[in-house]
Structures
1.
Amino acid sequence: MTHSFRMAITRLVIAFNRARDWLIAAIVLSLLKLISLLPATSASNSVDRAARLIGPRTSRHRLALFNLKRAFPEKSDEERQQIALDMWGNMARLAAEYVFLDQIFDFDPDATEPGRIEVEGVDIFLKLRDSGKPFIVFTAHTGNFELLPIAAASYGLDVMAMFRPPNNPYIARKVLAARRTSMGHLVPSRAGAAFTLARRLEAGGGVGVLVDQKFHKGTKTRFFGLEAQTNPLLAKLVRQFDCEVYPARSVRLPNGRHRLIVEPAVTIPREANGGVDVAATSQMLNDKVESWVREYPGQWQWFHDRWNIKHMVK
């Protein structure tokens, strides 16, 4: 095979992938546009029902059930199937809620009547806003986790959040544009992201990190008793800046409501010399996320290849 022929094949494959991504993005974004014509509650309920029908027919559903069987061997097949269906419903609602962020996020710190959003840990938000010290907030892909930085902003708390863009570049651009309107500073999780977060902490600011994703060449930890690799970034930032670390999560409630919870600062594991124990800190993050997922298993993304076992699923 000549070099010119290989180059032609490569260009053809790249063009095909771009065309496929564009077509998928066009379909997804058109559906979201149609959803925007409905009232927020009706749209959320409709996509939930649709996802519970479509999701089980995808290969990702098989991965979700495989993950669930390993994580919850004590549960029945029916219980695990129900968790997977709840997961698809949650993911569909999350997608639809991008369209209605302004309507959904009705939280007012001074309101006397509850709205769609309730917040636990208001005192922590205010403490972080007024302290002038660097801090890290970590969360996971549970409920509508996108609401957390919006809640922080409602208290005047500016948090620089690192996120993983969708693989589809056309969808990624649209999602990033939507996030920028209401979620403050955003840092895509690519080369240079750690340096950007470090500069924010050095300036006395706050950063937000999602900690439940697979990370190649990460720290070896356990998650649901199974070996998993975890990004050591948070532990290394704490080691460098000696900042406090706060867990935060979003819980989806019935009737289109959400509870956002900010917990007190965690105690960071230390080595004998007083330095941050990176491995133990990474494990602590996993343990906290696992406790959240066990409480609301249908609100976590089981189709994500957290344990790097996708190749084992048939």
2.
Amino acid sequence: MTDSPALVIFDLDGTLVDPAGSITGGIAAALEVHGLPVPEQAALDAMVGPPLIESLRRFASVPEGSMTLVVQSYRERYISEGMAKSRPYPGVPELLSRLRAGGYHLAVATQKPEGLAKKLLRLQGLDAYFHSIHGAPDDETLPPLPDGKVSIVAAALETNHASRNRAVMIGDRRHDAAGAAANGIPCIGVRWGFAEPGELEAQDLPAYATDAREAGDAVERLVPVHGRPGSTAHVEPTEAEASQCR
């Protein structure tokens, strides 16, 4: 057990990074390009978090024959302009620095395609904080993972050799809570993301956070780093550590 690091697993969109409308606006534009109806804003917001194809089926009723073209149109726009519009949420870089300084291992578990997640984190200057980044298959013509976020969270635990009593998830949607629970780890719900009213409260999570500082406090309370008290000093990742995520 002493070799197991204290691991913090983060969701991406809605937790680390604010898409700033690039996801919902991009989906709406892709639907319009292919002559398909655009759902109301509440439905578009609900599409942030789950796999894109699953959301297009559920919230936009996209016909299977049009699915590949809609996804392609969305991804092209997202890569060309959407990622650049995204921004880290206030206090997130400081939170990551605080946790790294305190001795935590950090990972990302997202249902965004893994290669795209790495590009987004690199663009936002956040990738070097993480020991590993995990996502869905890059080939979006494949069916979504049958267990959603469960296997992605499991991959983060396995890669970092973390025991379940030494790990915690941080996310903004019920999918994050479900992925954590299925792997036997607690989840901290953040209130700045895309959860619908009451969505996180229905999960009866052990902690909630209204800002990044509260999230850090909850991590240190739920998964303390034994013998290494947390520090608020800013410690940049080493070049060797940064290269692992590039």
3.
Amino acid sequence: MKINWYPGHMKKTKELLKKNLKLIDIVFELLDARIPISSKNPEIDKIIGNKPRIVILNKADLSNKDINTKWIEYFNSKNIPIVLTNAANNKGIDKIIKKSNEIMKDRIEALRKKGIKNKPIRSMIVGIPNVGKSTLINALAGKKRAKTGNKPGVTKGKQWIKLRGNLELLDTPGILWPKFDDERVGLNLAFTGAIKDEIIDTETLALRLIERLIEISPEKLENRYNVEISDKTGLQVLDDIAVKRGCIVSGGEVDYTRVAHLILDEFRKGIIGKITLEEPNQIEGTF
């Protein structure tokens, strides 16, 4: 599957990030807890440089708890502050505020000595589309301030938003890189909905997801769909799921479009189970 998606506003966002970074005290790098490697934009480190940052693994409620622990240990070993969140349910939000104030403690004290009190900590949140940025912003603000949507790229433009805990936020749209040299990265992004379904073959995508789940979590497929996995190909399992769920058209043929949407939707909502597609031991090179 070839995936190439780089809307024009993403290029503008990259330029916006560079332009406004001098206004920022701390960067929130938002990743998807299910795919921390694939959801990291490799250009972000170059853009933010040595700015203080907090890595936020969002949608942690959808990911494997044991692997979440491995990711916490990994980032701690790199001395990178990390917080796990489920922004939709406001979980982990207070930890972000607390950690931000801890990291900015020296700056706050230096300003206090100059007679400057309660100056907001200015932050920027960066992340790929559909990783939950708008939901996180609304949770940090304590009310609905940013537009949200279930399609990637719904947040556009520049907004300064007042947050809780003496924080201000420069919101930016999510950005992806122009192409995916690693097909596995592109697939992971597509599996989780970071790439619009309209530009990919959803039937093939669902099949590839089934093949991946057979590899890492076969028991979850068996439990959710009451199918036998052993010694079967991904297509055979997909066909079995279609039969179990009544995704059949006249003549007894499988309705692949219908079963594909069902499987992708249930994976993205965590209905199949709490599944993480990437672990720290899969990191290649720098991260």
4.
Amino acid sequence: MSTMKEAHIDTDTNVTLHDVPIPELLDPHQILINVVVAGCNPKDWKMPAGMLVTIGSCPNSGDDIAGDYPD
């Protein structure tokens, strides 16, 4: 099984890395991106720290990436 790295940020803004399975594409409108570079947007660490209560239920995180479409 192929794996990828996944970062988890806890409420103290500590980051731990985990090896997780690469997700399966179940919808024909989805794409898989081979991430080459990733950045940390302030919302990615402010949300777990409870500093962004207005978007606390927002699942949109970890989207500052650059990569390519795998062959």
